[in-house]
Amino acid sequence: MTWYALQHKPAQGDRAVAHLQNQDIVCFYPKIQVEKIKAGKRSQKLESLFPGYLFVKLEQTDPSWAKLRSTRGVIRVVSFANKPAAISDEIIQHIKAGLDSLAQQGGLKSGAIVQLSEGPFEGINAVFQAYEGEERAIVLINFMQKQQRIRVPVSALKI
Fold first, then answer.
1. Domain range for residue 118?
2. 93: closest CA among 33, 47, 28?
3. Same-domain pairing of 10 and 40
4. Domain harbouring 127, CATH code
5. pLDDT tens, 93-152?
6. Contact present, 32 and 100 (Cβ < 8 Å)
7. pTM of the prediction?
């Protein structure tokens, strides 16, 4: 059996997965926990890793192919030159392994050791303290024989 990508209707990924699973089709719909700030409050939300897409595992000769397009929530099978685009098992396993390691990390917690990857302190190890807004973080660095509190972009932090 081979993995294939399906495009689903906006905000109907879960619905498409449920209807596909009712047809005994193996599905993979990767989601990640995302931190959002709305009205100054930080909240966690589960979002699709590949917005608009999910994966199914089927044989080329499976009669379920005829049902895919008419499944609720599904728009189309991703294909090139009218042939469904196959996705190797290694790629799917790599995505699953990445999701597992991300779940084990649980995001940045206060006291975590990070490395700064850009700016004037590039390459320096720091201690993560807290988020400041949506795109900045406060970290502690040892500079001039003292711990200094600095604000850096979240994108500049490497775990």
1. 113-158
2. 28
3. yes
4. 2.30.30.30
5. 998 888 876 666 556 667 778 888 888 888 888 888 877 766 788 888 887 778 888 888
6. no
7. 0.65
